[in-house]
Amino acid sequence: MPLQHSDIQRIASLARLRLDAAEQAAMLEQINAFFTEVVEPMRAVDTSGVQPLAHPLAVLDELPLRLRDDAAHAPEPGLRETALSNAAAAQDGMFIVPRVVE
Known about the structure:
Largest sheet: 2 strands, antiparallel
Helix content: 25-40%
Number of strands: 2
């Protein structure tokens, strides 16, 4: 089912993009071509009986998951100050954000 102009307008709005009519038309054409050329052929493949893989190379060899130990450690010196230097507002070593829940 191809996308419509209203779909492109909604996607652009969600992505906070301002697209003129020509850009919307080009985007609509590109996205619909992607669905036609890539997504639909992939959906046509019969995957019944195929087990999902944790890693694409797991089909070639048994791969262990590379997980690190979940251990607490002290933050790097100056990390908090660096993070807070990018904040719009900070106080007492914490970010100040607008209240979103009443």
